Amino acid sequence: MTAVCDVDEAAMRRGQQNVDRHYSTRGTQGFFDYRELIAKARPDAVVLSVPDHWHALVAQAAARAGMHIYGEKPLAHTLREGRAICDAVERNGIVWQTGSWQRSVENFRRAVELVQYGALGKVTHVEAGTFGGISYRDVQRTESPPTGFHYDLWLGPAP
Predict the structure, then answer these.
(1) Residue pair 6/33 in contact by the 8 Å Cβ criterion
(2) Confidence grade of residue 137 (pLDDT, cut at 50, 70, 90)
(3) What are phi and psi of 85, to 5 degrees?
């Protein structure tokens, strides 16, 4: 892992520290703008953990730069965006994988194994929850973006 990119400066710095602590021996580069990461860091592959409205643009830019891609769902908002991503991947001969990250988390994989191998007996009812998350109670409240949060880069192509 050579670089992280986040429009939130604090999150980007935490990402750098986490990577440096666990993976990197030469200092992880940090970027606020994905275009700079692509141009300067030149990674072999990227993991697109971006807001859904950025998937198509970032994926196409990474594909054009010859970077292999792991992208989150949804692949795109429209058929046109999806087709553009597929065309860029094919044209540039790179590997693309769309994944549901949750399916890769150890506790979810272990739960599936327990069911598949009969360790729980016959399963007749399942309730599932998700990790914490955002509270939507204050969604009506408008406020300025926090210092260090590059809102224009987060908003990007969103309407």
Answers:
(1) no
(2) low
(3) -65, -50
pTM of the entire predicted model:
0.75
Give 3-155's CATH code, choosing from 3.40.190.10, 3.40.50.2300, 3.30.2130.10, 3.40.50.720: 3.40.50.720
pLDDT tens digits, 78-108:
999 999 999 999 999 999 998 877 777 888 8
Encoded tokens for 105: 């988390």
Inter-residue contact 12 to 3 (CB < 8 Å):
no
